[in-house]
Amino acid sequence: MDWRDWINQSLPRTEIMRGGATVWESGAHGLIGDTLGPVMHLHDGASEIFYFVSGKCRLEVGKNEEYFESGDFVLVPPQVPHNLWNAGEEDLLVFWIVSPHMSEDKWRTESITSEEMKLRVVRSRVEQGVDLPSDGNIHSQLHTLGLGNQLTNQTMVKQEAVIYITEGQAEIKIGKLGGRLVQNDFVHVPVNTPYSAIPVGGSASVIIFEMPRRD
User: Fold this and answer.
1) pTM score of the predicted model
2) Whose CA is closest to 100, among 163, 47, 158, 34?
3) What is the dihedral of CA 214, 189, 137, 185, to 10 degrees?
4) Thinking of the domain 3-125, which architecture would CATH place it in?
């Protein structure tokens, strides 16, 4: 995959969420587009997910370190101090979402307490049959669709979603708009909007992120 095409995909910044694709190039000093840089920080009242598409990552969590590779997935709950680094010699490709998006309070880098430094992330793998970690801010679920299967749903009045294709390809319809997405394509679903996914040419695996989670 040419990450230059992948990173050109975008997601809107709303009151509910911000996120998208980013890359830490081999030999670089940080993630592309990251205005904070590799600094220990936390999100007050907001959760964050990382899906590691390619490469190796070292994630500082409080005073500890965890390592991730392609296919790994992590949920960073609110108030968990963290800091991400490229841990390999190749490019690190990361898909991320923060929800809710508090534009005046995106992160906190100071006054991190000793109790906050003890908090942990929740990790998993994007594999069939494996539950992805979720909380009240971000619900993540992997769906594997065979030929003849269709995923249909609708966001609620104060809820948005993101569809991410992890394997195969699918015809995606969002409201009255539609098109074909292939592996590592993603798209935003606005509030109160129906959406569907139909696999094309075989099975397809799709992560649905809901912000906030459905009651």
Assistant:
1) 0.97
2) 47
3) 120
4) Sandwich (2.60)
